[in-house]
Amino acid sequence: MAGQCYSVSVVSVSCLPSNTATRNITLVTHPDSFNIDVASTSHGFSLMINLSNYVENGIYRIMTNVTWLRFLHCNNGLGSSNVTDQTYDVNPMNLSITGLVPNSEYNMTVVVSNALGSRTESFSNQTQPAAPSAPPQDIVAVNQTLFTITISWQPVDCAHQNGNITGYEIRYRKKDGGNTEAMSDIMGAHYTLTDLQPSTAYLIQVAANNTAGRGVFGNISASTLFEVHVISTTSTSINISWAEVDYEVLITWISTLSSHCTQNIDQSLKNDSVNGKSSYVIDGLKVFTEYNITLCINGSICTFKTVVTNATAPSAPPKGMSWEGSSSTNITIKWDPVPCADRNGNITSYVVMFRENGKEMFHNETTTGVDMEFTITGLAPSTEYEIKVAAFTVAVGPFTNESFFASTTGSYMHN
Q1: Cα–Cα distances in Å, from 154 out to 40, 171, 172, 202?
Q2: Which terminal residue of the chain, N or C, has fewer Cβ atoms less than 10 Å from its own Cβ?
Q3: In sequence order, which residues have a C-beta less than 8 Å from that of residue 21 and are 6 or more positions away?
């Protein structure tokens, strides 16, 4: 029997002996062209590769190299890559590339090869957005009142935004339980919660939204203040009160400045605690001095008060009286200030007391300002006068205790 011949390639013919059984031969061809359909998800791509000259039962190797280029929502880049290497004997060939970054642009290279050679295609594609995978950063309470809490935050870190941020959602409730309130579509990076209850701790949550959905909530605790009233003040004490609470109240106070003097300010912080009370008298304070008072309950809910103790009359007279000149009916005198620590208030005027030397009755004149110079008028010519001066705050302080004499003749004498 004559031998049989089979065409096994385009360029050669092979003849088998007559006693050889026939069999199918798979022809392998070069993968000269293929189509790729790409479907994107938030974390990867699905590829369908369709060879135009696929040979049944052929073994094909598919290699992909996916390189991360950039976020679509910010300018940061990581430069990471994802490589796969698989073999297939079917057409079309389906493969998945996972573990990618949402809302990002990638360069993709696909290499299809077999025993005869390979073909490469390169293109770019984008993953889909996903909900933010982290909360906003640096959530803090920036202001608290009796009935409001204002919070602020920074954007979600770029690597976790996973899309363009479209707004924020806030949820809050009392820390010890109760209904949760929610606000959405908040723009900006701060918000004020209103109509809250005084002296109450709240759990506050903030999450960012993008086109894919709501992200992760970040939590803080913050409290409204509790109301403190100043019942009364004296020159050395402050009486305060508050609504009674079932917690220990820690009271601290410190003098910040003297309202009339910056010298000798006691900056030491003092404190006391009370339980089961709703009022407290802080005593032993300095006259006409500003104090910052802080009250805290339950170790965290605090309120603040700035109070000034009352002024009193100066506790010392002016210093350094001197004669500045005279005429036949006038005498002009000057003096130095009351020492700072003895003023006990804002000096608003001075009282000048004078009499003819040797007489009992003094005459009084009050200055109309704080100038430390005064001209006594309407005096008798060639007459010596005894003169004293005192400062006035809310009351008249002591007069100068050393006798000071001046004469309308221009002479100056003292005892």
Answers
A1: 30, 17, 18, 20
A2: N
A3: none
Instruction: List CB contacts of 387: < 8 A, sequence separation 6 or more.
Output: 321, 331, 333, 352, 353, 354, 376, 404, 405, 406
Distance CA 246, CA 281 (A): 20
pLDDT for 410: 52
- Each residue's pLDDT tens digit, 38-69: 999 999 999 998 888 887 778 889 998 989 88
* Number of neighbours of residue 344 by Cβ within 10 angstroms: 28
Contact 333, 406 (CB under 8 A): yes
Report residue 65 as tokens. 């190299």
Counting every residue, how long is the chain? 415
Torsion angle of the four alpha carbons 62, 68, 72, 77, in this order, in degrees rounded to the nearest 10? 180
Residue 41 to residue 357: CA distance in whole angstroms: 107
Beta carbons of 240 and 228 less than 8 angstroms apart: yes
User: What pLDDT, on the 0 to 100 scale, is given for residue 216?
Assistant: 98
319-413 matches 34-126 in CATH topology = yes
The highest-level CATH class for domain 319-413 is: mainly beta
Cβ neighbors of 365 (< 8 A, separation 6 or more) are 351, 352, 353, 354, 374, 376
In the structure encoding, which two tokens stand for residue 92, read together? Answer: 């079309």
CATH 2.60.40.10 fits domain 34-126: yes
Domain boundaries, the chain: 34-126, 137-220, 228-308, 319-413
Note the pLDDT of residue 348: 93
* C-alpha–C-alpha distance, residues 23 and 18, integer Å: 13
Say what the pLDDT of residue 315 is: 94
For the beta sheet containing 93-97, the strands, ordered from the edge strand earlier in sequence to the opposite edge, are 34-40, 45-51, 93-97
CATH superfamily of 228-308: Immunoglobulins (2.60.40.10)
Interacting residues of 290 by C-beta distance below 8 A, sequence separation 6+: 255, 256, 257, 258, 259, 306, 307, 308
Quote the pTM value: 0.57
Helix ranges (DSSP H) in 94-242: 158-161
CB atoms within 10 A of CB 152: 16
Give dist(CA 304, CA 310) in Å, integer: 19
Query: In this structure, which topology does domain 137-220 adopt according to CATH?
Result: Immunoglobulin-like (2.60.40)
Residues contacting 134, CB < 8 A, separation 6+: 156, 157, 160, 215, 216
Point out the residues of the chain with pLDDT beneath 50.
Answer: 1-27, 411-415
Which phi and psi (to 5°) does residue 395 adopt? Answer: -155, 165
